[in-house]
Design goal:
The complex is a heterotrimer of chains A (about 675), B (about 170) and C (about 500). Chain A is mostly helical and about 675 residues long. Chain A is built from 23 helices and two strands. In chain A, strands 1-2 form a two-stranded antiparallel sheet. By secondary structure, chain B is an all-alpha fold. Chain B folds into two domains: about 80 residues, Four Helix Bundle (Hemerythrin (Met), subunit A) (Up-down Bundle), CATH 1.20.120; about 50 residues, no CATH class. Chain B is built from seven helices and no strands. In chain B, helix 1 runs antiparallel to helix 2 and helix 2 runs antiparallel to helix 3. Chain C contains 20 helices and two strands. The relative contact order of chain C is 0.10. Chain C has one domain. The two termini of chain C are about 30 Å apart. In chain C, helix 6 packs antiparallel against helix 7. Classes of the chains: A mainly alpha (about 675), B mainly alpha (about 170), C mainly alpha (about 500).
Chain lengths: ~675, ~170, ~500
């Protein structure tokens, strides 16, 4: 199967070509969607084969490089179109093709009747191909091509509803921010390439070769510069501080796109890249610290903003940013395996959440359309009580929410807890570790809070949709609910392959699986690690604590968005004696709101409106303005008079000659 | 003696060159140009290049300039009126001054370090300037000579294309 | 040679070797034949001249291909047809071929359908070829003049159009002005070394080390650099570019932005790498500054352009800057990158101009970026072609532009110019903005026009097809072309 690995990106490419060129003529949605879905599913089958073969090999032989064709050869520099199969890329291709297939299937139902249906599937297939190139590339250049390709597809798909101005703007924003990141990636690539070449005459960008030569890299210094540049690339692609603002705006795209690109796969490319180059990153303690701090800050920052949003997709978008922050936190504290693990479980539950929200929006839209109402189909204040109408969506959504909130027994718990524990226990950042852990815990609490707020507002309580159209609310078709059920199932069980050793029931398969990839990094890390000993009791204790935190978050959400709404009336009628108490509780809540929630919400709003819009966008726009000003200035020199041009030339010549003669 | 002669001729060359661009009446400009060409021809003579001098006078000062003067007169081009671009003039003066400083510095420090060719004054006197030019044109510089013919052809086509009334 | 002795055999003394100038001879003969044919046909039949010149180009191309790997020197080292010049000749022929394919439709539309344009394009190509294979400063200079004079006429070819007139005249005046710099530089080099043969200059300098400290040589080098910089439109000698490109007939703009630039680089490389390797430290310093200036000025000014021809003019300035990066590196990778890039640039830029020709109509060139609103929907295939060209120009994989840029910048890195490469990458990141703006208009704005006047003639379709292939194939499998480029470098 290894020899046929090139088939994996090829199938989606074929799908793209067929749908892109002939889609307009085919017209039949079933055929177009079928081709798109079938192609990615075939990739999934090949990926399964690759995975099986990889499992069959002993751990230390699980690296294979397949050169598809020689690409750029130039002197001592060589970059082939080659794919690298190892446990890490195997995980990634399984996630991309697996989740990808489900989302393709879902899209057949969701995009039904849209103008440009073929265009959507063509782009989606192109995206899958680029993403597979990104994760399979055995050198940085192939990876970079995938990197640019996914950016491009993301741009095209965000702007899918191009007739909306906001969609076009969001697309542009995403592209520009990604370009800033790409620039960092290229600089990092060049720095590393130049350093190896000029110091050791190893002109290479191949991951395997760099890994083999990585012992030559110094700690800090040039590695810090290179890795910080790579990390800049990662922040752009993975929507971390300060380049994250494009992701919430990216929700302008169709929901399956948000699920596939802006939750499950593309945005995790930055995490994957750090994992791929863990042996370089770990050589720079400074960069590791930056990664961890940026990750932790993004996690809590985005989580607070998430509490203040009413658009269902925007909540999920900020949640994605926050969860990505967790992954970076993991990478930054050297818990590479845990980071990738969270990447995988997050792909399951977040894809499920997005698709679930899509199902809700679909139903809402349908119902509102029937009543000729122009209410916002994505605003949670228009929803409520939907569990009665959409039981499957509700159930899968709930399961995934529990998973993301970190309740034991669900996948999110295992991965998030692993990250938090390693943030606490890993020996790289000394005193900072506990701070990182603390931030992570608070962010986890916010996560539980806003996710359950979302669930309560959407599925519980009274139905706030216009009563006229209530009858038109109904569950989505099977083609939509089947992917939901599969993903919901995975959101529950996906975590068990990476159960902490501590629990003793299963060995941590996942970590063992990735060991060969991250072994070397851990080896290098020992150089500056402050090894401390932690007892099992402590680990159990912290695990318990993180559960408690999650429960607190859920409880706050419950009291605010469930208890308040209904209980007061019931209490007043049935138990008049308790009325006062409940009434007082309401005051308590007000107080609580005043003391805790409102400041937080206010803070969230402030960050969103203030920092996000003014500072970040301001900087981005400001740089643009400076360049535009320069541009206008230079344009002013272009007078159109020939003698001015001649004068300019002479001046240039005189200056050049003078510089040389008088130096 | 030679130096004094050179200095005078060179000064006239430069002055008449300046006149070409500063005169407002095109006829005056053209006449100044003829003077410049004559001076250059004189310089060729002092460099032992009589053929070049003759060609310069015949072709440039003679044929081409007569043509130019005719055209000016036939088309009745008036002397230039209207504003001049003063700010460009100021910057131009500054640039010109810089150029002068550079040139002065350059002349002070440079020397002719090139290999001396086989064509010395003796050889010229023995064989004759014209034949030597012909020899070098048809041996060492045959290709450039031929390319010139294409260049002229292109120039003629261009002139026809851009100026003929009806093509 | 004894000067007192009359040479017995003039042809032998002149070193006549037609094999060394075969492509030039073929092309000039065909051009002259076309001039004759032109007299005997009426204005409806002028397109045949185009077909004949295409055939001529193909024949010449075969002679170029057959010369590969067998260097021919002739005319007492006035020309040297080596792989380097052959690669460039191939590039020139490609750009002439593509240009002629889009010329006919434009000429008919603008009603300036005069047959002389084809011989002029061919003569310009001859001039470029002589610049690439010239190993004598005189040959190079005359090649440049043949090229320039043809271009002055081509720029002003649309006589009825004032802008075209202006472009021709401006180009002529400034071109003549810049020729002065070049020629003065050559004269100074001659004064300090006593020869105009490129190889002889190098050997004279290496034998007489004291020449290097002669300011005359340095000034000569600098003034030649100024002259060539004008030709390749490097800042600060670029100011003619936008005005001339905007005014010239669009197919000629396409031609000018590609062929002459490549020719300028060919001569620039030949003179500096072969004749003046001893001064590499000096000139690479100068080129470093020129490269940075050119990239930055080109890209920053392009940001605010609304006229697409002007935007592409500034973009071509920026591209000259990228190529200068590879030249500054001066090593095998960088030089091969220059060759590769110029060829792929020919495909992508002429392709983009072909679309511009299509979108315009009689009296209304539709050169504003906003004229492209909705173009991508009305004509999906053409829109896709344009997107591919723009992506390649922006340097986004898998187009050839990306590979080329990667090559140029990695050459700079291998030579130790890390900062130069970083500035280059920054610039190419900024350039995405203005290329993408065109795409934003094409795909994200409502169409204001029906674009119903668009008629793709077969030759234009062929041009687009070739250009797309020329952008994508070297982008995806660049191996063969890079191999050729590496065999063609001067080292």
């Amino acid at each position: 199967m290894f020899e046929n690995v090139w088939l994996i990106p090829l199938f989606p490419l074929i799908g793209f070509l067929i749908n892109g060129f002939f889609g307009k003529k085919i017209k039949n949605e079933a055929v177009i969607g079928g081709i798109g879905t079938l192609m990615i599913f075939l990739s999934f089958l090949v990926s399964c084969g690759v995975l099986m073969q990889l499992i069959g090999l002993p751990a230390e032989q699980r690296v294979f490089e397949k050169v598809v064709f020689p690409w750029i050869h130039c002197g001592n520099f060589k970059a082939d179109m080659a794919f690298l199969i190892d446990p890490l890329s195997a995980v990634m291709i399984m996630v991309v093709t697996g989740v990808g297939s489900l989302i393709h299937l879902y899209s057949i139902g969701y995009m039904h009747g849209e103008e440009g249906f073929y265009r959507f599937f063509a782009y989606l297939n192109l995206f899958c191909m680029s993403m597979l190139l990104l994760v399979l590339g055995s050198n940085m250049l192939v990876m970079f091509i995938g990197w640019e390709g996914v950016g491009l597809c993301s741009y095209l798909l965000i702007g899918y509803y191009f007739e909306k101005k906001s969609a076009g703007d969001a697309a542009k924003k995403a592209f520009v921010m990604n370009r800033v990141g790409d620039f960092g990636f290229l600089i990092g690539l060049f720095t590393l390439y130049w350093w190896f070449g000029s110091n050791h005459n190893i002109w290479t960008i191949n991951f395997v070769e760099i890994k083999a030569a990585s012992h030559l890299l110094p700690y800090g210094g040039v590695v810090t510069i290179a890795t910080l540049c790579f990390f800049l690339g990662a922040t752009g692609k993975s929507a971390q501080l300060p380049l994250y603002t494009w992701l919430p705006d990216a929700m302008e795209g169709p929901t399956p796109v948000s699920a596939l690109i802006h939750a499950a796969t593309m945005v995790t490319a930055g995490v994957y890249m750090i994992g791929r180059m863990s042996f370089v990153f770990i050589k720079s303690p400074e960069t590791m610290m930056v990664v961890a701090v940026v990750g932790a800050c993004t996690a809590i920052f985005a989580a607070t903003i998430g509490t203040a949003q009413n658009d269902i997709k925007r909540v999920l978008a900020y949640s994605t940013v926050s969860q990505l922050g967790f992954m970076f936190l993991a990478m930054g504290v050297g818990a590479f395996g845990a980071g990738i693990f969270h990447l995988m479980t997050h792909a399951f539950f977040k894809a499920c959440l997005f698709l679930g929200s899509g199902s809700v929006i679909h139903a809402m839209h349908h119902a509102l359309h029937h009543g000729h109402l122009h209410d916002d189909a994505q605003d949670m204040r228009n929803m409520g009580g939907l569990k009665k109408y959409m039981p499957i969506t509700f159930l899968t959504f709930l399961v995934s929410t529990i998973a993301i909130a970190g309740i034991p027994g669900f996948s999110g718990f295992f991965s998030k807890d692993e990250i938090l524990w390693q943030a606490f226990a890993n020996p790289y950042h000394g005193g900072l570790n506990i701070v990182l852990w603390g931030i992570g815990c608070i962010a986890a609490m916010f996560t539980a809070f806003y996710m359950f707020r979302l669930v309560f507002m959407t599925f519980f309580g009274e139905c706030r949709i216009n009563p006229k159209v209530k009858d038109h609310l109904h569950e989505s078709p099977l083609v939509i609910t089947i992917p939901l059920m599969v993903l919901g199932f995975l959101a529950v069980v996906g975590g068990y392959i990476g159960m902490p050793k501590l629990m003793g029931m299963l060995p941590n398969y996942f970590e063992h699986w990735l060991d060969p990839v991250f072994e070397l990094a851990n080896e290098y890390g020992k150089e500056y690690a402050h090894v401390g000993h932690h007892t099992h009791a402590l680990e159990w204790g912290l695990m318990g604590l993180s559960v408690v935190i999650a429960v607190i978050g859920i409880t706050i959400a419950f009291t605010m968005y469930m208890a308040n709404n209904k209980l007061p009336e019931k209490f007043t009628s049935t138990f008049p004696a308790l009325h006062r108490a409940v009434y007082n509780k309401w005051y308590m809540d007000e107080l609580y709101d005043f003391l805790f929630v409102n400041p937080c919400k206010g803070f969230g709003n402030l960050l969103w409106k203030g920092f996000d819009v003014v500072v970040v966008d301001g900087i981005v726009n400001g740089v643009g303005k400076i360049f535009m000003g320069l541009s206008a200035g230079i344009r002013g020199l272009q007078t159109g008079y020939t003698h001015n041009y001649a004068l300019g030339m002479t001046l240039g010549a005189v200056v050049i000659v003078a510089l040389y003669i008088f130096r | 003696m030679e130096t004094i002669f050179f200095t005078i001729v060179a000064a006239v060359t430069v002055l008449s060159g300046i006149m070409v661009v500063t005169c407002r009446n095109p006829i005056n400009s053209a006449l100044s140009l003829i003077l410049t060409f004559f001076c250059i021809a004189t310089l060729y003579v002092t460099l032992d290049a009589p053929f070049m001098a003759a060609v310069q006078v015949l072709v440039y000062a003679g044929a081409i300039m007569v043509l130019i003067v005719f055209v000016i007169m036939l088309l009745n081009i008036r002397s230039e009126v209207g504003r001049r671009y003063t700010h460009a003039g100021i910057i131009g003066t500054v640039v010109g001054f810089l150029m002068l400083v550079l040139t002065f510095n350059f002349l002070n420090n440079s020397s002719l370090t090139g290999a001396k060719g086989l064509i010395t004054t003796d050889v010229i006197n023995k064989i004759g300037h014209t034949e030597l030019i012909a020899r070098s044109m048809f041996t060492d510089f045959l290709l450039p000579f031929e390319i010139t013919s294409i260049l002229l052809l292109v120039a003629i086509i261009g002139a026809v294309i851009l100026s003929k009334k009806k093509i | 040679m004894d000067m007192l002795q009359f040479p017995a055999n003039i042809a032998a003394a002149a070193g006549v070797n037609f094999a060394a100038i075969m492509p030039e001879v073929i092309l000039s003969v065909i051009a002259m034949a076309l001039l004759l044919v032109n007299v005997f046909i009426n204005s409806e039949q002028k397109a045949y001249l185009g077909y004949l010149s295409l055939i001529g180009i193909v024949v010449t191309f075969f002679s170029v291909v057959s010369g590969w790997g067998a260097p021919q020197s002739g005319f007492n080292n006035s020309v040297l047809q080596d792989n380097f010049s052959l690669f460039f000749k191939g590039t020139f022929l490609v750009s002439a071929f593509l240009t002629i394919l889009i010329t006919d439709q434009y000429l008919k539309r603008e009603e300036c359908n005069w047959g002389e344009i084809y011989p002029l394009i061919l003569f310009a190509t001859v001039g470029m070829m002589l610049m690439a294979s010239g190993t004598d400063l005189m040959t190079i200079f005359l090649g440049l003049e043949v090229l320039s004079v043809s271009l002055y006429v081509l720029a002003g070819f649309n006589r009825a159009n004032l802008k075209s007139n202006e472009a021709g005249l401006k180009y002529f005046l400034l071109g003549a002005f810049s020729t002065g710099f070049l020629l003065y530089g050559m004269a100074l080099i001659y004064g300090s070394t006593g020869t105009t043969r490129v190889a002889a200059i190098a050997s004279y300098i290496s034998q007489n080390g004291m020449v290097l400290s002669n300011p005359m040589l340095v000034a000569g080098m600098l003034l030649m650099a100024v002259g060539f910089s004008f030709k390749i439109a490097a800042a600060p000698f670029h100011m003619w570019t936008p005005d001339v490109y905007e005014g010239a007939p669009t197919p000629m703009t396409a031609f000018m932005s590609v062929g002459p630039k490549a020719a300028g680089f060919a001569a620039f490389l030949r003179v500096f790498i072969v004749a003046l390797p001893a001064m590499k430290a000096d000139w690479s310093e100068l080129l470093w500054v020129l490269a940075v200036l050119t990239m930055t000025v080109g890209n920053i000014t392009a940001l605010k352009q609304t006229n697409i021809k002007r935007m592409l003019a500034y973009s071509s300035i920026a591209h000259a800057g990228y190529v200068l990066v590879g030249f500054t590196a001066g090593n095998a990778v960088g030089t091969a990158g220059v060759l590769f890039y110029m060829l792929s640039y020919a495909f992508m830029n002429i392709g983009a101009f072909a679309i511009i020709v299509l979108v315009g109509r009689k009296g209304e060139e539709n050169n504003n970026v906003s004229d492209y609103a909705g173009f991508g929907f009305k004509h999906p295939v053409l829109g896709m072609c344009m997107s591919i060209f723009l992506f390649s120009l922006a340097g986004i994989p898998p187009a050839a532009g990306f590979i080329g840029k990667f090559y140029l910048f990695s050459g700079a890195i291998q030579a130790g110019y890390v900062w130069l490469a970083i500035i280059g990458v920054l610039n190419s990141a900024a350039s995405v903005y203005y290329y993408l703006r065109v795409m934003v208009f094409m795909y994200m704005k409502d169409p204001t026009e029906e674009f119903d006047w668009l008629a793709v003639s077969p030759s234009l379709a062929l041009c687009l097809l070739l250009s797309v292939a020329g952008v994508l194939i070297p982008g995806i499998v660049p191996g063969t072309l890079l191999d050729l480029a590496q065999k063609a470098i001067l080292m």
